[in-house]
Amino acid sequence: MKKSIDAPLVPLAFIFFGLASLFSAVKTGTVTNFIVPVIFLSLAAIYLHTSLFGKYRIISSVVNELNIKSDAQVLDLGTGHGAFLVEIAKRLQRPGKITGIDIWNKQDQANNSFENTKKVISEQHLTAVSELLTADMTKLPFANNSFDYVVASLSIHNVKPAFKRQTAIHEAYRVLKAGGKLAVIDIEHVGEYQKVLTKLGAEKIVVRNSGINGMYACLATKVLTASKPHRF
User: Fold this and answer.
1) Tens of pLDDT along 52-87?
2) Are 182 and 150 contacting, i.e. CB atoms less than 8 angstroms apart?
3) pLDDT tens-place string over residues 196-218
4) Which residue segments constitute the domains of the chain, with CATH numbers given?
5) Around Cβ 33, how many Cβ atoms within 10 Å?
6) CA-to-CA distance for 156 and 196, rounded, in angstroms?
7) Which of 208, 166, 210, 205 is nearest to 189 (CA)?
8) Could you tell me which Pfam families the record lists for this protein (predicted)?
9) CA distance 22 to 225
10) Which tens digits make up the pLDDT trace of 140-156?
11) How far apart are CA 8 and CA 187, in angstroms?
């Protein structure tokens, strides 16, 4: 599938300042002046590695850990270009299905659109087990206990302010079936999600770092997994 850059203005800013400071350092000829451009350009390289390669490795690892059954009903919050959706859809067979929702904000991901993601799904021959919707994760258009799995990758942190992010977690938990699993990959506010899920009564809440594959410059990607108890 076609890869894209998350929040593309961020690495562009690193590259711009890196090159500008490099030009200045070359002009002055002072060795210590090369420290700043090296830092900026290194941050850009790390960011681009994670955005174009690392995040896909993290998603693949998380999907393997979830051990998703072929007939599962799955919800993907903030689908974007469909990295999570495609990885999961490959493991499904009808009546299994993954539903991806997004508001298709291009600032969060380059060329993010319903049409582009629909084309990706079609090219991967996954239309039979996939569905795309335009919907807000803080107001999910689904009944309680609808999905065996709810997943989200680098999307919930874009919801502002904090009470809306908490609403998104509430909604994700609401539509999750008893015994279902939630997996969130994100660079910010993961501790906040953990607290909300604890209050909601979630079980087996685990948060872990993703290492070099999840470094967006100075921001580290974390993976949160949780289960909804059967007694819920």
Assistant:
1) 899 999 999 999 999 999 999 999 999 998 999 999
2) yes
3) 999 999 999 999 999 999 998 88
4) 67-227 (3.40.50.150)
5) 15
6) 13
7) 166
8) Methyltransf_11
9) 42
10) 999 999 999 999 999 99
11) 15
